[in-house]
Specification:
The protein contains no helices and 11 strands. With 109 residues, it is an all-beta fold. The protein has one domain (12-107): Jelly Rolls, CATH 2.60.120. The two termini are 20 Å apart.
Length: 109
């Protein structure tokens, strides 16, 4: 179970959006004083694959999705206040079946 914050204070928001899959996945980057960063995003219905060089934690803050991590058998469902971790140098398939899935992506050390 995740305890995602509802707001972040003392950060810099990057105005330019990260837009993927013809606008069906959109996020904005926020930068913290300690040089860490997160992205806050929306995923519209569809199936998508993401690769990542860095380890990530994907916290679902609204809606839901089904996720299959690269190299792991099976698909797992995630809803509001849950999260999944993605190892570095890997990726995941994500499917949003209805509505909009809202997330916070934290880049892990």
């Amino acid at each position: 179970m995740s305890t995602s914050p509802s707001q972040f204070s003392g950060v810099t928001a990057v105005a330019k959006a990260n837009v993927y899959f013809d606008g069906k996945v959109v996020s904005h980057t926020i930068l913290f004083p300690d040089n860490s960063k997160k992205t806050l995003g929306l995923i519209y219905p569809g199936k998508y694959h993401f690769g990542t060089p860095a380890a990530e934690r994907m916290e679902i803050i609204a809606g839901g999705c089904a996720v299959k991590l690269d190299g792991i058998e099976g698909v797992k469902e995630y809803g509001e206040k849950t999260y999944f971790d993605v190892p570095a140098q890997s990726g995941f398939d994500i499917e949003v079946r209805q509505g909009i899935c809202e997330y916070i992506c934290s880049f892990l050390p």
